[in-house]
Amino acid sequence: MPRAFITGITGQDGQHLASFLHSKGYDVYGMVKGQSNPHVGAVLEEMPFIEMVPGDLADLPSLVAALNMAQPDEVYNLGAISFVALSFNQAELTANITGLGVLRMLEAIRMVGGSQNNPIRFYQASSSEMFGKVRETPQNEQTPFHPRSPYGCAKVFGHDIVVNYRESYDLFACSGILFNHEGPRRGIEFVTRKVTNAVARIKLGLQHELVLGNLDSKRDWGYAGDYVRAMWLMLQQDVPEDYVIATGETHSIEELVERSFGEVGIDDWRQYVRQDPKFFRPAEVDLLIGDSSKARERLGWMPEIDFPTLISMMVAHDLQVEAAKAGIEL
Ligand code: NAP
Fold this sequence. Notes:
single chain, alpha/beta, Rossmann fold, UDP-galactose 4-epimerase, domain 1, 2 domains, seven-stranded parallel β-sheet, two-stranded parallel sheet, 11 helices, 43% helix, globular, binds NADP nicotinamide-adenine-dinucleotide phosphate
């Protein structure tokens, strides 16, 4: 059985990827940071097949030990400080984990290596936030980077060091430049989930207000389940390359809000929504829309879940969860 090692196993993508790889017959190892990580129990309850291995992207020896333990064929580096807003407050930590963490993972792979006939293949979770103040629209693999946050800057370093190690040491290493992808497993701090969860709670009478930042911001939003398939496809190619993964559609936060309230039959949504400048970013990214033609042509990848279905899925999930927590029968 092939073996996969995933950092960021407790995050949204780590869980989707673990489930996807398990269905493909992989043995799945997940790296967990911290001495009593609060997320691990829930992940293992749903996916008991995952072998959890301790390790931290800030600590190279722990990465080497984790790889030695797992002996993987494929490494997916999804671990990161991934919340843009937090990266402005904890810029140094973000640079260390989201940026230097990639370098440490690559070094660990060079040390552990894998067999000569079957060297470890490496996937790095790059981000559309690297395009930031965009130089062209839509953005593709050739579009220059201009990050607008410490998170984006750290991701650019991670991306560049993957290219450098691929060229310098002939590693099978590639990056997926993924545009925003969401789903019921998205962290509650991210705007899509913040909205769908608040809408569910407002519908159930558990909350009365939704406070947001810039309603005009636009994003290219896809479904996380579709995007982890692209990660795997990249590592099955003969040659390691980088790919943009995106839907090619853009939607505003206002549209997200309107559609989410629409899902629970609330049309006059403005009475529940308030804008607060504290949720505006110090520097906003421009219009992010991805051109994923390369992935569509070479990997045969296509998103399967569209924006309305994604929002519908997330609101339905949050209604179930919030109703169950509050003991309300739907
Ligand atoms: P997420 O839900 O925020 O998960 C981040 C993961 O990183 C968590 O499992 C977290 O572990 C782990 N982590 C944090 N600090 C760590 C450290 N020091 N050592 C090891 N692991 C650490 O993120 P996601 O949405 O699944 O995204 C996965 C990756 O794709 C991230 O690198 C993200 O930046 C990138 N990305 C995401 C999107 C998107 O729209 N979702 C788009 C482009 C790129 P704990 O929870 O245990 O702290």
